[in-house]
Design goal:
2 copies of one chain form a homodimer. By secondary structure, chain A is an alpha+beta fold. Chain A is 17% helix and 25% strand. In chain A, strands 1, 2, 3, 4, 5, 6, 7 and 8 form an 8-stranded mixed sheet that branches. In chain A, strands 13-14-15 form a 3-stranded antiparallel sheet.
Amino acid sequence: MANYVRTFGEIPGQVEGTSFYSREQVRKAKLHAHNQAGISGTGKQGADAIVLNGGYPDDRDYGEIIVYTGHGGQDSRTKLQIADQTLDDSGNAGLVKSQLDGLPVRVIRGFEEDSPHAPDEGYRYDGLYRVVRHWFKTRDDGFQVCQFLMVKIGSPSDVVDPELPTEIPPGTTLEPLKPVGPAGRSKTTINKVNRRAEVVQRVKAWHGNRCQVCGETVALPSGPSSEAAHIKALGVPHNGPDVEENVLCLCPNDHKRFDNGALYLTDDLEIVDALTSAVGKQLHTHPSHNIGIEYVRYHRACWVKET
Amino acid sequence: MANYVRTFGEIPGQVEGTSFYSREQVRKAKLHAHNQAGISGTGKQGADAIVLNGGYPDDRDYGEIIVYTGHGGQDSRTKLQIADQTLDDSGNAGLVKSQLDGLPVRVIRGFEEDSPHAPDEGYRYDGLYRVVRHWFKTRDDGFQVCQFLMVKIGSPSDVVDPELPTEIPPGTTLEPLKPVGPAGRSKTTINKVNRRAEVVQRVKAWHGNRCQVCGETVALPSGPSSEAAHIKALGVPHNGPDVEENVLCLCPNDHKRFDNGALYLTDDLEIVDALTSAVGKQLHTHPSHNIGIEYVRYHRACWVKET
């Protein structure tokens, strides 16, 4: 659209909760660039808005938390997937850009969405969401779709530490968290935050704050530093456990690479550069640090189709 | 205290708002390790609690936002500062550890604090705060104190992107934000989020997502990536402006180093390794990217005492 100026955040005059009869009206209100496409955005600028209107059965709408499926590879007539989705698609690339740059995305829900949060008719602007992470899901039909975890900015689910578990919405069928900890602890659920602190400390201590990928530490005046990265991501929808077997000690750069699919691990813990598919050295390990092969495989499956 | 087990987050049975007659009671409730010291924590474990009780005139208490002064160098009798504070102090090191590891800190306010948020008598547990950043302030008396920006977890001030400005609390005397942007924009305040997006895009584009310190990019499947770091930090209390002159394009590792005083810049934009004081190469620059010397000096002063 020639006159569309990509604008992030709120659009003056369009408050959260405003309803519209049609996509055309949404576009005319400057909330979204397009009349039909779900994602308003490009890889260069980022995505400023999405419409959630039942386009994919892979979507999940929990209100404050949305698992949004990307664009591409769908036969427009039959709505069947006929090819994989990729980051070459400008909408998908736009949402990744918004994630990496911390840009808010306007969310518009449509009546065709199968969710208690959808409007009964028309479309409704539902405020600003943040893209927390993305990954690829291989569906039962064998095709790969790109998915985005989105969280409503300022809501209780919008936690600062992206590694802190996103609350599992009530009514979601998931196994209850099993209590973990040293022998002798009571069976009551251990304070999630405190357990997290212990897991992080332990892993960083084993590795002396050295990155398991590159071997370096980021030396600060306070001492050597590193980041704890969950292999199978915490929270919806991956629900990885908060245990040492599911955590790596990484430098910020490799943490970003790992979380965004620039590298992944083989079953033998060799580091694969996803951009070239080159298999490199093995991960630095520590005798006390058992790394869960199931989490390694789960992470890898988020980035490459298993053959 | 022999029996104190450092525990992060909420203490069972001690809800936010609970009052106590004395520091001893606070300690017995397991909210804090000590009877007198302000900070409960060590560099190794992190800080799990602080008491805000008027110990330093440099403290600022805005409710959701606290600027907390660290420990050390104060004559216990006169309360005058007689030496610089450093990160060798276990309390200060503990708060830095909590910052870097994303550990929540319990905040207890005391009646001696000179603030509308202080209790009239005794002490009150006021919930969990996050340590957002730390720096050093050289006071008028020439001594350096360590300060910590703390934000109440889950409050409107607890924004996910640490670079997004923390809201200036009402009543704070600060200059109003001047509208910036291309010629022809109206004088109404430009959407803060949208301006931020433009500033970030422009700086990253000038540098092609290459780090101005190390020259590298973090290559992801979505393309080269980098982070925008404000030189003079946004928000309380530094209030750096959200403009290109105050932003650097950095890789995550150097961003962490820069924000935590592991490196700073000379007036000639040479990169100084704070751990060794070695002066290195000049920052990578771009002809369109003017870097504000006043912001460089401000940042440097947060980490080294000017001679």
